[in-house]
């Protein structure tokens, strides 16, 4: 019988970790110790330089279909493939949220032979990080309402409380609520809302902080609302940030697991890319870079979302940048963007859909980082259609590798791993200098307009009244130059999920509202109909989950 803990210890040893560097958690996972992180030099601004010997590969994608295109599976398979060809590789990936795990998407641990283990635990409660983040978030929300109830010494305007409660579940009924009902003992009645934990500012703080001291500082800078005089009220004004940090002291420690083929993986933090910044934690990535020859990480959804935020938000916060960008595509998704019928082979639709791939290659080219395409192969894919994509990539001077890690494990990712290794070797003596998308922008508005123009291909930005008023308030309060984190549909380059491919006609990005995340260090721009609290689909994945006789969870795909 397999010994999961022995396999995990072997993966830890492959990463150069001794028993003093991590501790077991639940029999099949581990937590990196804080003192191990400190010894590795990942804490503080100085950790930027000390933890950069490893090379970083960023996996992103074209705009996906609702079914997803296997980006996490590709990331896991690539890490396995790199190890298969002799590289000391580590995967640094996000933690799955219960929302999509029990909703539409299913699990977030890869698939087939390119999977993380233990998949059921990682997809459900794992090591409790999401619960700790939810608790810390809701502690601050409770402290705000408690302050209102007991006299409101800070003169917070109950109509201008902007910090929301969180829940790690898709629940549309909680998007708009009224709290404080029940008479005088029930608190101060006011309108409120919930966000999914992956979109909470506390999640972003955990993911972007560079150590315990920075965690406390960022939590203290969270703006919870505004006084009647228009001044911002911070968590530190309510003295809530130290208790929040106490709830999070274990949650900032990266989680150690392994792939099904034994490659070490750090799985930590889980912000979505369509409504948050979409990357694993700064601490996990720094620690992996200090221990590995090559680190494979991913940015959520397409390059218009996750990759842009990685270059503009995550990399600057962490002091690292990708050495190679891998853009994941599938024939299914390309045909979808060309207007093809689902499940049918359509060469003409494929040709039209290639415009979406070309748009994402243009986005990657803007960064100046070497880029290649990973085409995930499905059983029904034809050699002729695969060759058409290869020809289109070669015409742009971009290498393409077919990836079948789902079916074949590391050998199926060998071609992709070799292409990545070749690109890394070509720049071994002269690492590429990554260019952010709005590096010269001096204001939040300028940054947003640069992203709209240079990433999405929009002709401009239109600010609805609520968005303009919010940005003006932030500017008056001294937050005029924060970076921007755009909340936008993942299914289109535009803010309309029905617009597929690459928009040819001029279009305008519509920003309907903006939210200040001063602790995380950015402003969230809400576009289109994007929601920070998703809803369950008509037929949620939760209805297919079962418990086997031995307690094994079945049905998380």
What features would you describe in this structure?
The chain is of the alpha/beta class. It folds into three domains: 4-128 and 251-426, 3-Layer(aba) Sandwich (Rossmann fold), CATH 3.40.50; 134-248, 2-Layer Sandwich (Domain 2, N(10)-formyltetrahydrofolate synthetase); 444-527, Roll (Formyltetrahydrofolate synthetase, domain 3), CATH 3.10.410.10. It is built from 19 helices and 25 strands. Helix 7 crosses helix 8.
Summarize the structure.
With 557 residues, the protein is of the alpha/beta class.
Radius of gyration over all CA atoms, rounded: 23 Å
**Fraction of residues in β-strands:** 15-25%
How many strand elements?
25
- Describe the sheet with the most strands: 12 strands, mixed
**CATH superfamily assignment of the largest domain?**
P-loop containing nucleotide triphosphate hydrolases
What is the highest CATH level, the class of the largest domain?
Alpha Beta
Which regions are unreliable across 5 or more consecutive residues at pLDDT < 50?
Answer: none
**What is the annotated CATH architecture of the largest domain?**
3-Layer(aba) Sandwich
The amount of helix comes to 25-40%
The backbone outline, from C-alpha atoms, is: globular
Indicate the mean pLDDT. 94
């Amino acid at each position: 019988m397999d010994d999961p803990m022995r396999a995990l210890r072997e993966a830890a040893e492959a990463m150069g970790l001794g028993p003093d560097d991590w501790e077991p958690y639940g029999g099949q996972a581990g937590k990196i110790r804080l003192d191990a992180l400190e010894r590795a030099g990942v804490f503080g601004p100085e950790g930027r330089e000390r933890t950069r010997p490893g090379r970083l590969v960023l996996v992103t994608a074209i705009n996906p279909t609702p079914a997803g295109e296997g980006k996490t599976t590709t990331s896991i398979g690539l890490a396995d493939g790199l190890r298969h060809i002799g590289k000391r590789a580590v995967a640094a990936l996000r933690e799955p949220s219960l929302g999509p795990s029990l909703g539409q998407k299913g699990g977030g641990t890869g698939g087939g032979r390119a999977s993380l283990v233990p998949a059921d635990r990682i997809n459900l409660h794992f090591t409790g990080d999401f619960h700790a983040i939810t608790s810390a978030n809701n502690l601050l929300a409770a402290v705000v309402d408690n302050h209102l109830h007991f006299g409101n010494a800070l003169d917070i305007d109950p109509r201008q409380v902007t910090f929301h409660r969180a829940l790690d579940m898709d629940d549309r009924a909680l998007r708009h609520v009224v709290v404080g009902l029940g008479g005088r003992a029930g608190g101060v009645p006011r309108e409120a809302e919930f966000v999914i934990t992956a979109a909470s500012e506390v999640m972003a703080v955990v993911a972007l902080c560079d150590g315990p001291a920075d965690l406390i500082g960022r939590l203290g800078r969270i703006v919870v609302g505004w006084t009647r005089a228009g001044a911002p009220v911070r968590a530190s004004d309510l003295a809530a940030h130290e208790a929040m940090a106490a709830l999070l002291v274990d949650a900032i420690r990266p989680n150690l697991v392994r792939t099904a083929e034994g490659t070490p993986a750090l799985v930590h933090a889980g912000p979505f890319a369509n409504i948050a910044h979409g990357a694993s934690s700064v601490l996990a990535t720094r620690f992996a870079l200090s221990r590995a020859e090559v680190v494979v990480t991913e940015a959520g959804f397409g390059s218009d979302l996750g990759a842009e935020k990685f270059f503009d938000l995550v990399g600057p916060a962490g002091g690292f940048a990708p050495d190679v960008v891998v853009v994941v595509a599938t024939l299914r998704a390309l045909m979808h963007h060309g207007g093809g019928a689902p499940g049918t082979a359509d060469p003409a639709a494929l040709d039209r859909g290639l415009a979406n791939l070309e748009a994402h290659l243009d986005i990657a080219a803007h960064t100046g980082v070497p880029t290649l395409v990973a085409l995930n192969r499905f059983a029904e894919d034809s050699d002729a259609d695969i060759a058409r994509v290869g020809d289109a990539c070669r015409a742009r001077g971009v290498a393409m590798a077919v990836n079948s890690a789902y079916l074949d494990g590391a050998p199926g990712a060998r071609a992709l791993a070799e292409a990545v290794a070749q690109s890394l070797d070509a720049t071994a003596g002269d690492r590429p200098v990554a260019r952010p998308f709005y590096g010269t922008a001096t204001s939040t508005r300028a940054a947003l307009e640069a992203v709209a123009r240079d990433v999405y291909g929009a002709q401009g930005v239109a600010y609805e009244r609520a968005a303009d008023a919010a940005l003006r308030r932030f500017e008056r309060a001294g937050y005029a130059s924060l970076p921007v984190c755009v909340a936008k549909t993942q299914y289109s380059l535009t803010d309309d999920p029905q617009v597929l491919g690459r928009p040819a006609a001029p279009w305008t990005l519509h920003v309907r509202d903006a939210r200040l995340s001063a602790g995380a260090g950015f402003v969230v721009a809400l576009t289109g109909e994007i929601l920070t609290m998703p809803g369950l689909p008509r037929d949620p994945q939760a209805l297919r989950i079962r418990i086997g006789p031995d307690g094994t969870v079945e049905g998380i795909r």
